[in-house]
Specification:
Structural class: alpha+beta
Shape: elongated
Largest sheet: 6 strands, mixed
Helix content: 40-55%
Radius of gyration: 29 Å
Oligomer: single chain
Distance between the termini: 81 Å
Amino acid sequence: MASAATRFGRWIRSVATVWIADRATVRARTVALLLGCGILASCREGVLDPHGPVGQAERVILYDATAIMLAVVIPVIILTLAFAWWFRSGNRRATYRPDWEYSGRLELIVWAIPALVILFLGGIAWIGSHDLDPPKPLESGTPPLEVEVVSLDWRWLFIYPHERIATVNYLVVPTGVPVHFRLTSTSVMNSFFIPQLGSQIYTMAGMTTQLNLQADKPGIYPGISAQFSGPGFSDMRFTLRATSAGEFTSWVAQAREQTRVLDGVTFAQLAWPTRTAGELTYGSVSDDPFDVVAHGHMATRWSPKEAL
C-alpha cells in the first residue's frame, strides 16, 4: 500500500512538473509573440518607419543613442561572462588577491566610460532638441499649410483657417508641403502624435502649442492620443491622409460642397463628451472656435445649453 502511494505521489509530482513547465513555455512563447508583434508594428506603422523629415531625424537619434549604449552594454555582458569563466573554482591559473583594493587605471576606465556615454548622449539630445524644436519651421521653399487642432472629449477637430473648412477625426495634407499645426484643448490635457511623421506635442486648455511636420510620401498615417484623458481615450484616434497637391486641391473643393457648417452651436455639440467614433466634414466655418478655446473663453462664448 505504501509503495502504491509512493508511486502515485511521484506520478502527481511528474505531472505537476510537466504542467508547470508547459505553462512556463506557453507564457514565454506568448510574451515572445507579443514582443514580436510590437516590434513589427513599430517597424511598419511606428517611429521606425518614418515618412517625413522630422520622423527620419528622430529615428537617426534613436539609432545613435542605441549604438552608444550598446557600445557599453555588450562589452559589460561579455566581460561578466569572461570573468565568471576565468575565476571559476577549477581554474588554477586565476590569481586570487584578497589584499587588492585600488587601481588607478581601473578607476580611470570605470569613470571615463560612463562620462563619455553621458557626454555623447547629452550632445545628441542637445543638438536634436534644438534642430527638432516643434515650433521651429521646417526648411522648405513651399509655404506651410496652416491647420488648427482642437482636442475634444474624445475626438479631434481639425480646422483649415485659410480654406474655411473643418474635419473631425481625419485630415488631408499635400505631400512635400510643411504643415504648421496650432493646437489647444477644450478640457483635459491630451497628446497629439503621428508616429510615422514624428514629434508628439501636448494640447492644453487655455494654451496654444505649435508643431511642424511634413509627409514626404502619399499614404494614410494613423494618429493617436498619447495621453490618458478619460474613458474614451482608447478610441481617440485619427488618420492623416497625404495626397498629391492636385488631389488635395480637389479634396478641398469637394469638402466645400458639404452642407455642414461649423458654428458656435455645432462646436458646442462637438465639445460634449462622447465616445462616438466617425469622421465628419464641414463645408464652411462661420465662426472659428480655435482662438476662443485657446484663450479660455469657451464657457462665456458658447453656453453648454446651446448643444441641447
